[in-house]
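Box 3.1 — From sequence to structure: Tyrosine--tRNA ligase
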Amino acid sequence: MHTAPTQLDPSFETVWDELVYRGSVHVSTDADALRAALGGEPITFYCGFDPTAPSLHLGNLAQLVVMRRLQLAGHHPLGLVGGSTGLIGDPKPTSERQLNARETVAEWVSYLQRQVSRFLVAEGENPVRLVNNLDWTAPLSTVDFLREVGKHFRVGTMLRKDAVAARLESDDGISYAEFSYQVLQGMDYLELFRTYGCTLQTGGSDQWGNLTAGTELIRKAEGAHVHAIGTPLITEPDGRKFGKSEGNAIWLDANLTTPYAMYQFWLNQDDAIVVQLLKAFTFLTRERIDELAIAVADAPFRREAQRVLATEVTAYVHGIDATRQAAEASAALFGSGDLAALGVDTLAAAIASLETVTALPDAPVLQLLQESGLVDTLSEGRRAIQQGGVSVNNQRIEDDAATLEGRLLHGRYAVLRRGKKSLAGVDAG
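Predicted structure (token representation):
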């Protein structure tokens, strides 16, 4: 199994040109000035991640890939994990966030810092530096905060921010704490500008109001012009946002989203968006992506682009070995590999992706076919077995009185199959 090296595509004149090609710029401050800045002497840039969960997720990965491209171009990354903003939470368009305990947020800060460090190089001429905004907000008194930062913000402008406006129209309204989130994020940019000379912030386009709060604060407080890039939101084919608020998050922590589940997620992407995902989430060259785009158009049934996408991104997040195991599990689960050769953790992750029934170790296969929903009735199950259309762990069942006894993998798991594509899992643990 091979993956593309983590490097820039030499066919682009500047990293800005590559970001534009990859669809990573949805909105920005002055594009010409940004292209010049990113094509010149190294600058310092940052992206912030709030510890509202014990792991980063797919939306954060989009930012980390952009940061890595900028780092590869020689620019200096700052990875901000928001120990203070995480105590408040940026306003959701629908409802107030539940505040997490300070101890929980502090623990999550450590988790997220370790994750950020996995994707951005910590050695060399432009190593990543991790910063925590609690370091400069905690010592600041309320009066100093209002005098030094709050005086530069206009309430009318703050009310027009999309998330704030949406909340004002809701029944619950918005608390002063969440209303002030944009002031806190603006202060972050000002602090990093003063301390590190930071002149670029990246973030999701849904954060554009918060990003520009920082550029405006620096303009008013320091008389300087700095930049911001808002990346497109990552959405499913039906337009739904990938994110933990939607209940379908793909986490970067293997304990929350297994490498197998991540591999399958990318493998199942729609032809309509797979090329754009290759551009945004991988380090494949433009030439290679063009080849895969042709493959999608000419032979979509081969799903070559999806397999490459799944391999590249899963390996970037979890490494080659875990990705190889995930690919082998995927092949075995759908009939072209050896389920018995899979490790117990990999097999368990594969089983978890299926509709799963619990059973005794000697449960009748016929009964499990019905309980799992692979057949509606026992008589339908008997016919399926007699016609040679049922297997357990890819081994055909020929006797409708067969049980699980002697068939379980790792003494616990089985995969039921009816036909080629109808699968269910069995857990006899």
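Summary of the box: The radius of gyration is 25 Å.
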